[in-house]
Amino acid sequence: MRIAYLGPAGTFNEDALREATGGSGDGEPVQAPTIYDAILAVERGEVDRAFVPFENSIEGAVRPTLDTLALEADSVTIVGEHDYRVRPSLIARDQVGLDQITVLLSHPQATAQCARFVREELTGAEVRDAASTAEAVRIVSEAGERWAALGSRRAAELYGCVVLREGVEDGDENVTRFVWIAPAGTEPEEGVAWKTSLIFSELGEDRPGALVEALLVFSERGVNLTRIESRPRRLELGRYMFFCDLEGAASDPTVAEAIEDLRGKAESVRLLGSYPTG
Fold first, then answer.
1. How does DSSP classify residue 99?
2. Residue 219 CB: number of other CB atoms within 10 A?
3. How far from 107 is each of 75, 97, 163, 180, CA to CA, in Å?
4. Which DSSP string do the residues of 175-234 spell out, in sequence order?
């Protein structure tokens, strides 16, 4: 089985994949330059699975994942999830004082997870984005300037850098939820507890209570929503799509009835996946 993930070597995505597979060596990891490319590799049949970040306990949704699933990849499904504890480190090519760092590189998600540390400890640094945390460390390893990156300890070892400060995230419980992406129609593994993820949009004429009425299809049946988030549809200002996670499998009669009722209230409803939790 070929598994796409956000590379290069040394990303938190790679560390999470190792943990999720138990270091068993099952599957062939395939590096992708972006989350978009990892998911589209499944869509195109180039790999069997993708393992990508979905949301973070500090920063919230991973927008490239949501947008790719909603707008770019119609023929994939979520078949599982894995929670991973993320501990970003401040990394440089050589030992350097924090007040001497002129540029800080990282993936935007990692930078946001460490916003307080960056604001208070790296006051003289210009913050720049990189395609991944490992790519940021790689760039810093080749830079002759006093640059630093936010990344994993393993990335520092891989690229011959030093860890200036470990655990610089803004919260003690910095957890990222990763999801397994498979071709549409793939059956997930069996599980005791289930979760269903879906997107809906366009609730008809803009009027008070339209969103509440849509969500009532779940609460009236006792279906618990564990997450809801809006994202622009990229059509025009004021048009949104809503991402929901709810408890239960889509095959459960009560959940299936609620989703069917939602289809009568929204212009579009797409099931992203129904899968075991944990």
1. G
2. 12
3. 27, 22, 17, 21
4. EEEEEEEEETTPPPPP-SSEEEEEEEE--SS--TTHHHHHHHHHHTTTPPEEEEEEEE-S
Measured distance CA(152)–CA(100) in Å, rounded: 21
CA 276 – CA 103 distance, rounded (Å): 42
Query: Please, is 212 exposed, middle or buried when counting C-beta atoms within 10 Å of its C-beta (0-12, 13-18, 19+)?
Result: exposed
- Which DSSP category does 40 fall into? H
Q: How confident is the prediction along the chain (278 residues), in pLDDT tens digits per residue? A: 999 999 888 999 999 999 999 866 678 999 999 999 999 999 999 999 999 999 999 888 899 999 999 989 999 999 999 999 999 999 999 999 999 999 999 999 899 999 999 999 999 999 999 989 999 999 999 997 899 999 999 999 999 999 999 999 998 788 999 999 999 989 888 878 999 999 998 776 666 677 888 899 999 999 999 999 988 877 667 678 899 999 999 999 999 999 999 998 888 999 999 999 86
Neighbours of 184 (CB within 10 A): 13
Q: How far apart are CA 84 and CA 19, in angstroms?
A: 8
14: CB partners within 8 A, 6+ apart: 5, 6, 7, 29, 134, 154
Q: Is the pTM of this model over 0.85?
A: yes
> What proportions of the chain, in percent to the nearest 5, are helix, strand and coil?
30, 35, 35
